[in-house]
């Protein structure tokens, strides 16, 4: 495959994502991943386009199949755990799988990033483990600069978990 073709398709797909033209983005990113099937960044982008197009089950399958092939691509595992914990489609959510994936993700202290802890908290909340969810969010918030745009979302999710309500994406 011509690397320029892959790059062109990836740029097109990401541009369409920014425009929220998810069906077009999915088409371009599917083609890019066909040409470069071992690129975890493209796989993540393709899954994100599928999610944007509300094709949640396909996104979950895409991530589930990709993760074993890229066991060091922690972003793939985070995306998979987040989708399994927070998917708007209840039939795609799987709290226990989300917990397993998220716990694997944060097992190494170097990977206990705020976004990974946010995913862990969402997974715990999805399984009704609200105490550990709040604790994970406290750790995420403490590690997030006050100026970060993510901080407010973390605080809002912490309030949900404190109120014993899981977070589900819209």
Descriptive terms for the model:
mainly alpha; 170 residues; 2 domains; globular; 9 helices; Serine Threonine Protein Phosphatase 5, Tetratricopeptide repeat
Number of strand elements: 0
| SSE ordering | HHHHHHHHH
Share of helix among residues?
over 70%
Q: How would you describe the shape?
A: globular
* Biggest sheet character: none
Kindly report how far apart the N and C termini lie.
37 Å
SSE layout and pairing:
Blueprint: H1 3-18, H2 22-35, H3 40-52, H4 56-66, H5 74-86, H6 95-106, H7 114-126, H8 130-142, H9 149-162
Structural notes for this entry:
It contains 9 helices and no strands. It has 170 residues and is mainly α. The protein has 2 domains: 1-54; 76-170, Serine Threonine Protein Phosphatase 5, Tetratricopeptide repeat (Alpha Horseshoe), CATH 1.25.40. Helix 5 (74-86) runs antiparallel to helix 6 and helix 5 runs parallel beside helix 7 (114-126). The mean pLDDT is 95.
Please give a quick description of this structure.
The protein has 170 residues and is mainly α. Helix content is 70%, strand content 0%. The chain has nine helices and no strands.
């Amino acid at each position: 495959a011509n690397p320029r073709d892959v790059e062109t398709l990836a740029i097109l797909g990401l541009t369409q994502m920014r425009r929220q033209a998810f069906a077009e983005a999915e088409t371009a990113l599917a083609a890019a991943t066909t040409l470069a099937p071992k690129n975890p960044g493209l796989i993540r982008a393709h899954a994100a386009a599928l999610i944007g197009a509300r094709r949640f089950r396909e996104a979950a399958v895409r991530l589930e199949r990709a993760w074993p092939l890229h066991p060091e691509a922690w972003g793939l595992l985070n995306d998979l755990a987040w989708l399994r914990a927070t998917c708007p489609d209840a039939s795609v959510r799987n709290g226990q799988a989300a917990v397993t994936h998220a716990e694997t993700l944060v097992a190494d202290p170097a990977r206990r990033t705020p976004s990974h802890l946010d995913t862990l908290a969402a997974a715990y909340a999805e399984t009704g483990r609200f105490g550990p969810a709040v604790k994970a969010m406290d750790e995420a918030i403490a590690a997030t600069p006050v100026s970060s745009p993510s901080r407010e979302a973390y605080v809002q999710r912490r309030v949900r978990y404190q109120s014993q309500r899981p977070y589900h994406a819209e």
